[in-house]
Amino acid sequence: MSDSAPLSPAGDRHFDGLADKFAGSLYGGPRGELRLALLDELLPRMLELDGQPLLDVGGGLGQLSAWFARRGHRVTLLEPAGDMLAQARQELAGLPVSFVQAPLQALPERAAGRWPLIACHAVLEWLSDPKAAFATLAENLAPGGQLSLMVFNRDALRFSNVVKGNLQKALDDRLEGTGKRQRLTPISPLCHEQIVAWSRESGLAIRSVAGIRVFHDYLRQPPSSEADWQRLVELERRYCQVEPHWRLGRYLLYTLVHDRRSPEETPR
User: Fold this and answer.
1) Which single residue of 38, 67, 99, 202 has CA 20 to 30 Å from 89?
2) If you average pLDDT over residues 121-145, what whole number do you get?
3) Strands 97-100 and 115-121, sheet pairing
């Protein structure tokens, strides 16, 4: 992705050309390690899983697709960035995963269906119209289906800016990234109240919520020993679903359930 055209025609931030950056500095570092460790514990707790087919929207390098595929789910990975998808194909070879190169907005045409399970992690915050994207996810969820949604937390971003001394930026509420170059501040960070409102409008019920990296991103110094790292991981695990701590997780993880009946199930 060039600096002169950092956004898609729809105004979204895709990640063409950044596969190595994601693999190295994000998932290859402590932040990614902690995120994946927490998901490994939270997903079985927050979702009812019985091997149902999964649509992984904006699946990137395929870490989440691999997690589900290794647990018996047939996975369709939807991702707009070609190099991300190519690397995912290599990493997930031999697993029951199919690949579709398309953005979330093309879901109704490229991966149509009423899915019993959809995962959309760290995607909405990179879109110019996350509300419309949320509605698209809801419309493609089967009655009784589950949506595992993870979004970048605007409130945590504000708190982080204050901790770093960016006081005027926080006061002005100038928290969005621009999507330029290789900066990875989301262009549409979201708050819990938005997810609550959009869920109500779309006929989804919030069954559970957790904070991902509640403490890690605010540390003045990283853990200096393996023992301290394990203490941090235990703190994250212990408080990720406890008030008020989960509300300041860098990401918010939701299980949303479609509570609307399909037309043929509606009593006449």
Assistant:
1) 38
2) 96
3) unpaired
Please provide the DSSP assignment of the chain as one string.
--TTS-S-TTS----TT-HHHIIIIITTSHHHHHHHHHHHHHHHHHS--SS--EEEET-TTSHHHHHHHTTT--EEEE-S-HHHHHHHHHHTTTSSEEEE---GGGHHHHS-S-EEEEEEES-GGGSS-HHHHHHHHHHTEEEEEEEEEEEEBHHHHHHHHHHTT-HHHHHTT-------TT----SS-B-HHHHHHHHHHHTEEEEEEEEESSSGGG-SS--SSHHHHHHHHHHHHHHTTSTTGGGG-SEEEEEEEE-PPPGGGS--
Query: pLDDT tens digits for 157-177?
Result: 999 999 999 999 999 999 988
CA distance 151 to 190: 7
Q: Name the more confident of 10 and 194.
A: 194
Q: Which residues pair with 98 in a beta bridge?
A: 76
Instruction: Give the residue-averaged pLDDT of 55-73.
Output: 96
Q: What is the pLDDT of residue 185?
A: 84
DSSP string, 121-179: ES-GGGSS-HHHHHHHHHHTEEEEEEEEEEEEBHHHHHHHHHHTT-HHHHHTT------
In terms of phi and psi (left: phi > 0; alpha: psi -120 to 50; beta: otherwise), the region of 173 is left
C-beta atoms surrounding 83 within 10 Å: 16
- Tens of pLDDT, residue by residue over 12-39, are 766 665 545 555 455 568 888 999 999 9
